[in-house]
Amino acid sequence: MGNSSRKEAQDKAGEKKEKKGDKGEEEEEKTAEKEEVEVMEDVELPLGVDKLLKSGDPVLDLSYYKFRRLPRQVLNLEYLEKLYVCGNRLRNVPKGIARLQGLRTLALDFNKLDDIPLSVCQLTNLTCLYLGSNRLMSLPPEVRNLQNLRCLWVESNFFQRFPKQLCDLPNLRSLQIGDNRLRMLPSDLWRMESLRGLWLYGNRFQEFPRVLLKMEQLEILDMDRNRISEFPNLHHLPALRLFSYDHNPVKEPPRVGEEVLIVGEGAEEVLQARGRRREAKEHAEKEAEEAAAVAAAAASPVIHGILKKLRINSALNLAAAKKKVTNESVPSTTPTGDENGPQNNDGGAEFERQGVAFFEEAGLGYDDDSLEYEREELICEGEGYESYEGAELEYEREEMDYEYEGEE
C-alpha cells in the first residue's frame, strides 16, 4: 500500500510537471511571437519611408536604409509587385511576407541572410529573385515551388554544390551563381532547357564542365576567374553570343563561332582577324555587285540600239511594201469592166501577206497591240527620214488603220 501510494504521488507530480512544461512551451512561443511583433513595431522608420509606404506605388524600394528587420507595414501592402530591400542588415524575413502574393520581383541581396525562409518559397508568382551577397550555403527544397521564376541571382555566397532543385524550374532563363565555391556541375543540368544566360565566374572549376556542351540553347556563358587551362571547341553551342574566359590559365582563346563575342586573353587579336575577314568578304561582294551593274549598263544600250534599228527597218519595209501594193492597185484610165475589182482584191491580199510575213520574220508577233505599237513608232521615227514626206507618211498611216479596221 505504501509503495503504491508513493508511486501514485510520483505519477501525479510528473503529470503536474508535464502540464507545467507544456504551459511553459506555449508561453514561450507566445512570448516569442509577442516579442517578434513588438520588435517589428519598434522599428523606427527613416525619414521619407512612411511616405513611400503610403504612396500606393506597386514598386517599393527600401534599399540601403540599414534595416535590421523588415518594417511590419510592408506586410500589409498586398498590391506590391516589386520589393527591393537590398543593402540592409536583415538576418531573416518575417513569415508574413507570404501574404504579398502579387510580388513579381523580390530583391534581398547584400544582407546577412543565412537561410531562405520558407515564406519566400510561397511567393509562387515571383519571376525575379535576387539573393546575392548573403551567407547562403544551400537553398531549401521548397524553392521548387517557384515555377514561374525566370531570373535567379545567388552570386557571392558560400555554395559548394550546385543546388539541384534549380533543375526543376522549367522557366528559369538567367542564373547568376558566380563568386561561390563550385567545383562541378550536376550531370542533369541539361534539363534546364529554358536557360539562356549562365554566370559561373569566380568559382573553383579546374576543367570545363562537359555538361555545358549539351546546352545548345545557351546564349551567354561566363567562366571568368576559374582554374581552367583548356577549353573545348564551342562550335557545339550554336546559340552562343557571348563567352568570357578571362583570368584562366589558358594558352590560346577557345574556338567559337564567327558571331560569338569573346572576352579574355588573346581575344582582341582573334576579333581583329575576324573583322579583317569580314571586311574583305564585304569588299568582294561589293565589287561583284558593282561589276554586275556595269555589265548590265553596258549591255542595255546595245540591246536598245538593236531593237530601235529593228523598229526603223520594220517601219521602212512596211511603208515600202504598202506603197508598192497601192501603186499596183491604182485603176487604169481604160475601163476594163469587172477586172478592176479582182485586181484590187489581189493587191490587198498581197499587202496583207507581205505584212504578215514581215512581222513573222521580225519575230514581233501578229496581234493588234504590237501593230499599234509599231504604228506609233512609225510616226515618231518616220519624221527623221528625208525620203518620206510627212504628208505621205500620214496618208500611209491612215490607210494602214483602215486596212486593220476592215480586217477586224
Give a quick precis of the structure.
The chain is α/β, with parallel strands linked by helices and 408 residues long.
Description:
Residues 72-177 form the Disease resistance R13L4/SHOC-2-like LRR domain. Keywords: Leucine-rich repeat, Repeat. Residues 1-37, 323-349, 381-408 are annotated as: Disordered. It contains six helices and ten strands; from the N terminus they run ααββββββββββαααα. The protein is α/β, with parallel strands linked by helices. Helix 3 packs antiparallel against helix 4, helix 3 crosses helix 5 (368-382) and helix 5 (368-382) packs antiparallel against helix 6 (390-407). The longest helix is centred in the C-terminal third of the chain and has 62 residues, at 267-328. The termini are far apart. The model is unreliable at 28-41, 332-345, 355-371, 373-399 and 401-408 (pLDDT under 50).
Topology:
Elements: H1 2-41, H2 49-53, E1 59-61, E2 82-84, E3 105-107, E4 128-130, E5 151-153, E6 174-176, E7 197-199, E8 220-222, E9 242-244, E10 261-263, H3 267-328, H4 340-362, H5 368-382, H6 390-407
Parallel strand pairs: 1-2, 2-3, 3-4, 4-5, 5-6, 6-7, 7-8, 8-9, 9-10
